[in-house]
Amino acid sequence: MAKSVTAHELRDQSVEDLVTKLKEAKEELFNLRFQAATGQLDNHSRLRTVKREIARIYTILREHELGIVPLSGESAEETKEAAE
């Protein structure tokens, strides 16, 4: 993951895509932490960026779960029906 993505860009993706991005971000965070522990990390700000990206993905997944904001391809009515 070269750059951080915005919440708006993440809301345009499906749940499966978000879960995939979450796994990739967690793997990247693990690798960055490992590099930091061994003194090989060049860009320390990337740790913060990846943590925030993970938090954004979790937030969007939770919004979808609660029916607050529908993901792309869904109407608000479909989301409300699924929540009930």
Automatic annotation (TrEMBL):
<comment type="similarity">
    <text>Belongs to the universal ribosomal protein uL29 family.</text>
</comment>
<keyword id="KW-0689">Ribosomal protein</keyword>
<keyword id="KW-0687">Ribonucleoprotein</keyword>
<protein>
    <recommendedName>
        <fullName>Large ribosomal subunit protein uL29</fullName>
    </recommendedName>
</protein>
<dbReference type="InterPro" id="IPR018254">
    <property type="entry name" value="Ribosomal_uL29_CS"/>
</dbReference>
<dbReference type="InterPro" id="IPR036049">
    <property type="entry name" value="Ribosomal_uL29_sf"/>
</dbReference>
<dbReference type="InterPro" id="IPR050063">
    <property type="entry name" value="Ribosomal_protein_uL29"/>
</dbReference>
<dbReference type="GO" id="GO:0005840">
    <property type="term" value="C:ribosome"/>
</dbReference>
<dbReference type="Pfam" id="PF00831">
    <property type="entry name" value="Ribosomal_L29"/>
</dbReference>
<dbReference type="InterPro" id="IPR001854">
    <property type="entry name" value="Ribosomal_uL29"/>
</dbReference>
